[in-house]
Structures are given as C-alpha cells and as structure tokens.
Amino acid sequence: MIILYVIVAAVVLILIIVIIQTVITSHRRIVTPFKQPVDENLETAEKLSKAIQYRTESFNNLARINRDEYRRFHEFLNTSFPLVHEQLERRELSDFSVLYRWEGTNTELEPALLMAHWDVVPVPEEEEAQWNEPPFSGAIKDGFIHGRGSLDDKISLISILQGVETLLAEGYRPGRTVYVAFGGDEEIGGLNGAANTVRYLEKEGIRLSWVLDEATVIIQGGLLGIERPIALIGISEKGQADIRVTASGDSGHASMPPKSTAAGVLAKAIWRIEKRPSRLTLTPLMKGFLESLAPCSKAVRLKTCSPRPHGPLPTVGLSPVIQYRIPSTGCVKPQGGKILQSRFSGVNIPAIPYPLHRWKAMGSD
Q1: 261-306 residue pLDDT tens
Q2: Per the residue annotation, which of 119, 153, 185, 291 is the catalytic one?
Q3: pLDDT, mean of residues 92-98
Q4: N or C: which end of the chain has fewer CB within 10 A?
C-alpha cells in the first residue's frame, strides 16, 4: 500500500512540475505581431524568375553537368547586377566556385561571408509532368514564383545580389569587408565549390567574423498547429554518412534457387534497419526551438515542460517536419546487383544515406 502511495505522489509531483513550467514558459517570450510585407516592386521577383529558367542541375557524375548553362547563368548575373559586377572584386575559383569581395571601411574588423548556391537537384524528364508549373519555367502565378531553385537556393543568391546592388546604388560601404561566395555543386557535396572557397580563404590567411549561409523559410500553418507565420533560423545542421551494406551469395538459376539468396538476406537487413529508427531525443537546441514557439501553442508548452528536458520525446502530435529534424534519419537507396527474369546475381549493394544528428550549434566550441 505504501508503494502505491509513493507512485501516486510521484505522478502528482510530475504533474505539478509540468503545470508550473508550462505557465512559466508561456510568459517567457513576447511574441510581436506579424505584418505581412507588401512589395509592389516586382524587379527582384522577375530576376529570380529568370534565374530559375537556367537549368543549372548538378549530378554526381560531373561529366553530366551542363557547364555552358553555368556560364550563361553567370552572364545573366553580370548583366542583371551591373554595379556588383563593376565595383566588387570577383574571382572564379573553379567552374563551381565564385567569390566576390566588397571592401569595407575598417580593415581592422574581421570580414564576413555570405553564401548561396546556384545548382539545383535534377528533375527527371518523366517527372516534369507532375509539376503544377514546369520546373524551370520560373512562372510568377498567384503570388508565388514556381520552379526548381525558387527556395533551394537561387532565392538566397538573387536576394544577396539584389541587396548589395541596392546598397551600392545608394553609395553605401560596409564597415567590415564582406565576401560573397556562390557554389555550383552544393547538392552533390560542395567538394569543388565551397571547398575551393575554404582553401582560398585559408591560403590567403583570411579569418572570418561570421558566416551566413543558406537557411530555412517562413512557414505559415502546418508547424505544430501554429497558424501564424514562423521565421525559422538555422543554427545547427545534420552531418551525413553513406553506409554500404553488402550481401554475398552464390549465383544460380531461378529453377533451383537456394534457401536464401543474397537479395533475401539484404532485404532482411534493410527491414531491420527501417524497423529500428533512432529515438527522438529532445536536445538543448531543439528544446530552445520549441520554447520559442511555446507562447503560440499550448500543445508545444506541454511537450517542452518535461521533468526530463533532454530525454526521449513523445511523438504523439508531432508533425513529420519536426520528427525528421530531431533524430538521425536514414533512407535506403538500392544500387548494384541485378535481378533478371530467370537468373539472379550473387551480390546486391544498397547505399543508405544517413544524416547524423549534431548536438552542437554551428560555430560553438
């Protein structure tokens, strides 16, 4: 009986802690009213529309990349942003890396770096018909700019250049020197784009004060049931590891198959991997993110006010957007062995891209 009383007391204590923390969290931050921006000048939107029309797809097989299209895209940038082209120092570090330098007035300040990329994920021809608007049309319709790169990441590239162009027209000079780096292979790892920029800066002994790279967007609705617009700021990022799983077996004929083929062994392994995903754990970074949203949602306050703030996180009510951001995630992509109509090979190899969760914010020690 004493044990029962202890359990009841513990449950009551936990509920009290949750209620107190919920009340505290709900008043922790002041949420300012959101005003929808009104921009009657379509110049920037039209430039982004034109940028999308360049089919700057990147492929793991570099030979498939249309470098002539890359060059045409850069010619478009030079003509669309003439002051940037005339007044900023520009270096082509490779076919996949361009670096601008905007001289500041105070040489004692460490420079800053703005980054974006012009390459986009390829769109297979057989999938183009599935788009509401053609993927490289850049159509401006119903208040939206349609096309591959409208979010990832030509919008950042055009916005940066338009901002610099506007400031140059006003005669503005930054206090610290500003570098602007654009890459053409971000979608395939950045080894020939961003990596070249890093090597150049290291060679020149340039130490940066801060870096602003591609981030997320303003979401309205669909995030934890919050209808008001939310501006997401990326301060951490998952790493990635490609894991290759190999199953070996004897080749043979379908008329006399073995008890288990390599494909069957591999299928069991893939099934076990998918059945055991990483647990959702509320890290300090994610807890801070949810706490920022708490004033907008009672449901979020209940989720973040746990007596075990860094323990496993209940998934009930969490949107897929949040669930996929918290743990390490994996996806199986079959490659390798062939299965014919009557014959089977002895080896099948899939690659499993596995984004690994980083616990530290970028730039922290």
Answers
A1: 888 888 888 888 888 877 777 777 777 777 777 777 766 655 555 5
A2: 119
A3: 96
A4: C
Fold held by 43-219? Aminopeptidase (3.40.630)
- As a three-state string, the secondary structure of the chain is CHHHHHHHHHHHHHHHHHHHHHHHHHCCCCCCCCCCCCCCCCHHHHHHHHHHCCCCECCCCHHHCCHHHHHHHHHHHHHHCHHHHHHCEEEEEECCEEEEEECCCCCCCCCEEEEEECCECCCCHHHHHHCCCCCCCCCEECCEECCCCCCCCHHHHHHHHHHHHHHHHCCCCCCCCEEEEEECCHHHCCCCCHHHHHHHHHHCCCCCCEEECCCCCEEECCECCECCEEECCCCCCCEEEEEECCEECCCEECCCCCCCCHHHHHHHHHHHHHHCCCCCECCHHHHHHHHHHHHHCHHHHHHHCCCCCCCECCCCCCCHHHHHHCCCCCCCEEECCCECCCEECCEEEEEEEEEECCCCCCCCC
Is 119 marked active-site?
Answer: yes
Domain layout of the chain by residue ranges: 43-219
Q: Which pTM was predicted?
A: 0.73
Which of 57, 153, 186, 187 is flagged as catalytic? 186
What's the pLDDT at 166? 95
